[in-house]
Specification:
It is built from seven helices and no strands. With 244 residues, it is an all-alpha fold. The chain has one domain. Helix 2 runs antiparallel to helix 3 and helix 5 packs antiparallel against helix 6. It is rod-shaped, with a radius of gyration of 35 Å.
């Protein structure tokens, strides 16, 4: 094709047809420009297709990962709520009499056993870590989803801080205190238990402090609600055909 155009150009030049040659030259330039533009368009289309396919794969990973994260959080929150409810039931028994009736001891045994917890939310976030390490958040075309993913780590730090306080209290203060005075399963038929300890202010303080820390996780701080809402939105925005 190039040889064909060159032959035409030589023929026009030899015939001294300056005007026709000029027009031809301009036409040739236009054809070259059009060819370059078409090539660029094809290249851009290929790049956009590759980027779109990559985004689709990343969104699929995020969607699957955060569904599992939500399931884990639901399980952890249920454990927190169980411990919270049992602490509240113990508090409702205060002040405990010096010689509690057997039904009260049975209930107290159950409540104390389930007032423990110590579980924490530890979500998988390999998909976000991959985006962070490669600075690839721009590949997420949905701006709302992108903001949620970028802010996820900071949100988790705030929430997990509340859980850490609660867990540290359980293992550093709550468990050492209870294990000092009561058997492992809170079997109050075992006479080695220090039943007099149930009437002390220290016992009440330990239970109330445990209750307050759980309340901080579940209600007061508001961080749990933010995590739950963020999880919900990420799952919705990353699902197939969500408009990303």
């Amino acid at each position: 094709m190039i040889k064909f155009f060159r032959n035409i150009r030589k023929k026009l030049a030899s015939e001294n047809k300056a005007m026709a040659y000029s027009r031809y030259a301009i036409g040739e330039i236009v054809l070259v420009v059009i060819g370059i533009l078409i090539a660029l368009q094809i290249n851009n289309w290929n790049e956009n297709r590759i980027k779109s396919n990559k985004e689709t794969a990343i969104l699929a990973d995020i969607h699957e990962e955060f569904i599992k994260n939500k399931q884990q959080l639901d399980s952890v929150v249920n454990r927190h709520e169980d411990a919270f409810i049992n602490c509240r039931k113990i508090i409702q028994l205060f002040p405990i009499k010096s010689k509690p009736e057997p039904p009260v001891l049975d209930s107290l045994s159950h409540y104390l056993f389930w007032s423990y917890d110590g579980v924490t939310f530890n979500p998988s976030q390999s998909s976000i870590d991959a985006l962070t390490s490669t600075s690839s958040f721009d590949i997420i075309s949905n701006q709302e989803l992108r903001k949620l993913l970028i802010s996820w780590n900071d949100l988790m730090k705030d929430y997990q801080e509340e859980e850490r306080y609660s867990r540290e209290y359980v293992w550093d203060q709550y468990d050492p205190y209870l294990s000092k005075h009561f058997d492992w399963s809170f079997d109050f038929n075992d006479q080695r238990n220090h039943f007099d300890e149930l009437q002390t202010l220290e016992f009440e303080f330990k239970i109330k402090n445990r209750y307050d820390l759980l309340d901080q996780i579940l209600n007061t701080s508001g961080e749990l609600k933010k995590v739950q809402e963020s999880l919900k939105q990420i799952i919705e925005l990353s699902q197939p055909n969500s408009g990303n």
